[in-house]
Predict the structure.
Amino acid sequence: MQANELFTQPNTILLDGGMGTMLQAAGLKLGARPEELNITDPQLIESIHSRYAAAGSRIINANTFGASAHKLAGSEYTLEEIIAAGIANCKRACAPYGALAALDVGPLGELLEPNGTLAFEDAVAEYGRIVRAGVAAGADLVFFETFTDLYELKAALLAAKENCTLPILASMSFEAGGRTFTGCTVESFAVTARGLGADAVGINCSLGPKEIFPMAKRLAEALPGDFPVFVKPNAGLPRADGSGYDITPQLFAMEMKPYRELKLFAAGGCCGTTPDFIRLLNGVFADCRPGRAAHAMPSVLCSPMDFVTVDGITVVGERINPTGKKRFQQALREGDMNYILEQAVSQSEAGAQVLDVNVGAPGVDEPAVMEQVVKALQSVVSLPLQLDSSHADALERGLRVYNGKPIVNSVNGETEVLERVLPLCKK
Amino acid sequence: MPIGPSRPLNLAKPESIDIRQAARYFGARGEADSATLTLLEQCAAPLLAAATPRAVWLEADVESLAQVGILKGEDIFRHLEGCSEALLLAVTVGPGVDGQIRRAGVGDIAAGVASDALGSALAEQAADAAEAELRQWAAGQDRYLTGRFSPGYGDWPIGVQPLVAAALDTARRAGLCVTENDLMTPRKSVTALLGLSDHPVKGRLAGCGHCVLNTRCEYRKRGKTCASE
């Protein structure tokens, strides 16, 4: 299979299973960085990839999940060296089977602002470095997985789009309540990741096939019928005594059967799964053609936590707007963020479903202030935002740092304006 | 058992936040006045609603923990005297609490600070609840635990925090990360070590001698210690 044939396969493709599980079984020590084995024990890594390929996996994730500067701090190898070796090991294992080698990319290991201290653009830069290293090493595709913060996934997707033309798969991990650790919903993930240019979206880790199924169904329903969806569940739930996961390959295969109705693009396993688990999936997904029936796609917008379907009257709070308000204009000029945030909190408490954000006033650097206000607003309210400006640069800055899928307001129908603004929306 | 695998611990959300403890973190000396209590009570409900407590733990022998660099200084070894094994624990009340603290502080600094104090009290309650579970586990095996001892207490440096998080795989299992400066995010999180033994053990408080706040401690200025109040 070639990378450009990835989404035209007649059958659900098999992904691989756990890497950490296999390395622990091979005696990986605590505190050791599994990614260093790409260089120190390439045969071991290649043999694990080969076992997955032999079991039927046609997308194999290289051993690069934790290859980020933060996680490799103190290592004697650079992330470029680790990724080059990791992709090379993977490609050698893939070649005899015509499988594709994916640059596997996980979270950076630090929380982004405002919950942590890592700045959004620093995260974009770090993911850019990882993606460039993967491209240089000859990866066939980019596989973002196990994300729990939608904002971090956005940084990763922007970096991938800005640094490569490879297919991008994006996957998040959800808890039993249907949200990630940071509160992101399945639907917000679906529309945001698709909007940012992921070619396929999926759910991995955290739970077993049975628990993930209802979420995978919601994921598929939030996307057009022809948009590729995949899953990589764990081998059930972790046992209370820490001795691994609680289901066998046979039970895993049984619990994967219902996924046939979701017409998945691809399926595999995560923690606790081994080549035996993948081998049994060949039968489960035999003659399963990807692609679901087309269905109506409503207009939606979202933040990570709130998802609004625009199918009736939607209440938009319009108070974040300096037009005709001297006090507001003064707050913008003086950078009095607190005043602006008070308007946001009071509208949120009064029942607004969406907040309009307009910061255009004389004497205000609108692009810079738009970015600043969007970041500040999303740190205190969970409502989706409507970016309101006739200034394309301000929209661009606001859209880039917005966490979710916003509305763009105050765009008129003139060709010149649309030619400038619509590509920003697409990006 | 060198260093065992990270295990999940199911934590129920407490029914309410310990307002007295929060008042102490808020800076109240002795009994808090009614205005303070009212403010804390008003801020408590949305903060509790935003909380998503999670905990993970593992069992390990003391020698292995020392080998990987998690045990440093003198106080933690004194605390572990008589214990050849220990339990490592991480608890967080989740990022929603940090968000609610930010939100409460918009236009009302006092509410922000009160929410921060409530968040600390809640994290302490979550750690107490986790410890109670671990005590039950130990009792079931006829073994005994010391009290909790956390990085940053006595001369056990917070620099061990990244190693603790890595051993417990907290990022993946609880959404808990450590910054470059060894601070935990979400901020309202607790890591701790409890000595484990087959005979009753009490552990040892660090005392003030090695404490980094030794010369500027608010409690010492008032002739008390943080453990006595």
Summary: The beta strands of chain B are 7-9, 54-61, 85-92, 144-145, 177-178, 184-185, 189-197. Chain B is about 40% helix and 15% strand. The mean pLDDT of chain B is 92. The interface with chain A takes residues 2-8, 52, 54, 58-59, 64, 68, 94-96, 98-99, 102-103, 106-107, 163, 166-167, 171-172, 174-175, 177-181, 183, 185-186 of chain B (CB under 8 Å).
